[in-house]
Specification:
The protein is mainly α and about 90 residues long. The chain has four helices and no strands.
C-alpha cells in the first residue's frame, strides 16, 4: 500500500494545500497501514479503492481526533469489520 496516495487523499479531504503537515500525515498513513496489516491481519491492495479509501478515512479520523479519547466512529468500525471478514474468505 502506498502511503503517499493516502496522504494526498487525506489532504484533499481536509482541504490542506501546503506541505507543512506532510511529515505528520505520512507517519499517520504508515501507522494505519502497519496496524491494518500487522495487527488486523489484512492484506492491503493498493489497486483496491475500498482499501485505499478506508486507509485514507481512517488516517483522517486519526489526524482529527489526535487530542481526543474515544472509540473509532461506527462507520469506520463497520467498514473495518467488513474488510476483515472479506480478507478471511480469500484463499
Amino acid at each position: 500500500m502506498d502511503s503517499t496516495a493516502i496522504v494526498e487523499l487525506v489532504k484533499e479531504r481536509l482541504g490542506i494545500r501546503t506541505t507543512v503537515r506532510d511529515t505528520y500525515l505520512e507517519a499517520i498513513a504508515k501507522s494505519v497501514i502497519t496496524e491494518l496489516e500487522d495487527e488486523k491481519g489484512l492484506t492491503l491492495d493498493a489497486e483496491n479503492f475500498n482499501h485505499l479509501l478506508f486507509c485514507a478515512d481512517y488516517a483522517t479520523w486519526r489526524y482529527q481526533s489526535r487530542d481526543e479519547s474515544g472509540a473509532m466512529p461506527r462507520h469506520l468500525q463497520f467498514r473495518l469489520h467488513n474488510l476483515i471478514l472479506h480478507n478471511r474468505r480469500l484463499p
